[in-house]
Each structure stands twice: as C-alpha cells, then as structure tokens.
Amino acid sequence: MTETMAAAVMTAAGEPLEIRDLPIPKPGPGEVLVRIEVCGLCHTDLHLWKGDQPIERDGPVILGHEGIGTVVELGPGVTRLKPGNRVGTGYVHATCGNCRECLTGHETHCASVECIGVNADGCFAQYAVFRESWATPIPARLEGAQAAPLLCAGVAAYSAIRKARLEPGELAVVFGVGGLGTYAIQIARNHGARVAAVDISDEKLEHARRMGADYTIRADRDVASDIHALGGANACFNFAPVAASWRQMILAAAPRARLVLISLPAESLRFEAAEIIERGLLVMGNADGTRQELRQIMELAAADHVRSVVTRIPLRDIDKAFRRLASGGVTGRLVVDIP
Predict the structure, then answer these.
(1) Angstrom distance (rounded) from CA 72 to CA 82
(2) Beta pairing partners, 175
(3) Half-sphere exposure of 29 (CA within 13 A, CB side)
(4) Share of residues in the chain with pLDDT > 70 (%)
(5) Residues 6+ positions from 216 with CB-CB distance below 8 Å
C-alpha cells in the first residue's frame, strides 16, 4: 500500500473543492482503515460546504459520510472486523455509548455525538478511518452505489417512517420528492400505507409515480383540500427545505396525525396552538437513524424492497457535483466513484 491517497479537500466554506495528494490516515484504538469504493453526496455535506454549520477544527476538511469500502488495516483493540470485510459509515462517527440516549436506542441524540466532516474526516478520499462500533456491514449482494445513499438519506427516511408508526391503509404524505422523499415513498408503501407525493416539479412528481406514489399533487395547488379529499393525512413527512410545507402539513392533517420534520428550512416555523391541540397532532423531528436501523434498511435493499436512484460522478468532478446539488436540479442521489 502506498503512503499517500487522493482526496477531495474543502479549504474554506463555499470555495471550490480541490483534489489533493494526502497521507493515508492511521487507525487508532477501536478503529479500522477502509479503502473507499464509493461515497454518496448528501445535503448535509452541502450545508457544511456552504458554511451553514461551522467546522471547528484546523486545516483542510474531507467531507463525505455515505462511504463504502473494504477494511484493509485494524487499529488496536479491534475484535469484530477483519481485513477484507465490506463496511459503510453514515454521518455519525461515534457516540459515548453510556448516556441515557445511547442506552435506550436513541443513540443519534447523544450529547457527545461525533460526526464525519465535523469532528472527523470523511470518505471523499481513497482511504478513511471508521470506528469499528459504527461500521455497518454491507451485504455482498448489494452493489456499492445502491447501498451508499442508504447510510444517511435512506436511513433518515426509514427512521422517520418508523417513528410515525404507519398502519396499513393510512395516508402518508411526502412533501418533497428528492433523494429522501424517494426513499420515503417506497418505505411507506412497504408499511402498507397509501402514499401521496407533493412537489413543485412535474418531473419529480412523475418520478414519484414511478417509485410507487398512489397520488401526486403539485405544491402550488390547494394541497390541503386535495389531501382532505383523500381522507386527510395520517402522517406527513417534510423533506422540502421550505417553511411553506410546514403550513401545508398542518392544514392537510387528519385528527391525531403525526407530522415529522426532516429537512431544515431557513425560515422560522409558526403555528397556532389550537391547530395542534384541538386535533391532537403529534409533531416530531428526525435527523438520522440508529445502527440497527442501518442494518435493517441494508437488508431491505438487498431483498429489492428499497431501491436507490443514483447518478454516478467521478471524484475529479466532485466540485461540479456539489454545485449541481446546490442548484436543486438533482432527482435521486449523487454517488461519487473513488478510483
């Protein structure tokens, strides 16, 4: 193995990403070195690149937290993984493992959570270091580009659907048919729900129909009336980063509906207390999924119950890929091939 690797480096917020030759990192205690084959490009990477979330560490940063590759070296104390194992990592790099959230199955809400791109370098590089305890096994029958976006986008949608506790026959309304919305449509259908997709783009609504949506509604229509004509929403999922969707969710909700917020609109969200109280609405947030949920969605994808819609990008074009994602013109997910 050589001593250096190619990596896409962020030097400052909003500046072009540079391909540089860097030293290959060394795994520390409880860590493994992974030779990366592919890495998905996530909106969280975009937020970090734009400077929406400050990165408080010195030097250039390697983003990318939907990485898949093969273990090539073990750090001290590694017992579960072996060289040759195929693994992936999501946004969470590590948690404390001992707090109430970690011990009760809510580990992604750990107050000491460490994240890739924020606290540790990521996978837009030929090699990356994973924590053994957070390395997700990737089924051999699952192709890398199909699996990579599941590590963040897919599991976030999967966890949101699970939190909403959908029942067969209920109406789930997916606002925003981007990468996460594409997963949510499929997963809600797997739960036996009827699915309505809402988006401003006719192209994305046609994509939603191909992915299994029973109904499609343009976001510039009277969305609430259209949804109440179907019986009202039992669960709403906001994957569109605009505050307008929040208002549509409240108006479209049936009594006792569950409203799940996933995207991050720049504007403040407002509501009248009576709108929530009188209809018994439940509002919750969801940012990520647990390690168990990661394993579950990988198995669902390996069994062809969940499909990723991807466009593959070579590492040399990663800066163009970031700018394409920022323009809002991506249907499905972008996946970077690592040479």
Answers:
(1) 8
(2) 198, 238
(3) 1
(4) 100
(5) 196, 197, 198, 199, 205, 206, 208, 209
Tens digits of per-residue pLDDT, 287-299? 899 999 999 999 9
Place of tokens 């896409």: 8
pLDDT band at 55 (very low <50, low <70, confident <90, very high): confident
Instruction: Give residue 94's pLDDT band: very low, low, confident or very high (50, 70, 90).
Output: very high
Q: pTM above the 0.70 mark?
A: yes
DSSP, collapsed to helix, strand or coil, labels residue 187 as: helix
Structure tokens at 190: 């797997």
Return d(Cα 188, Cα 165) in angstroms, integer.
10
Cβ-count burial 220-257 (b if 16+ within 10 Å, e if not): eeebbebbeebebbbbbbbbbbbeebbbbbbebbbeeb
What's the N-to-C CA distance of the chain in angstroms? 14
- Rounded CA-CA distance 267/239 in Å is 15
Sign of CA dihedral 133, 304, 324, 223: negative
Taking phi first (over 0 means left), then psi (-120 to 50 degrees means alpha), and beta for anything else, what does residue 328 get?
left
The CB density around residue 317, as the number of other CB atoms within 10 Å, is 15
- Asked whether the beta carbons of 207 and 177 are under 8 A apart, the reply is yes
Rg, C-alpha atoms of the chain: 20
Length of the chain: 339
Separation between Cα atoms, residue 188 and residue 119, nearest integer Å: 33
d(CA 134, CA 329) in angstroms, rounded, equals: 32
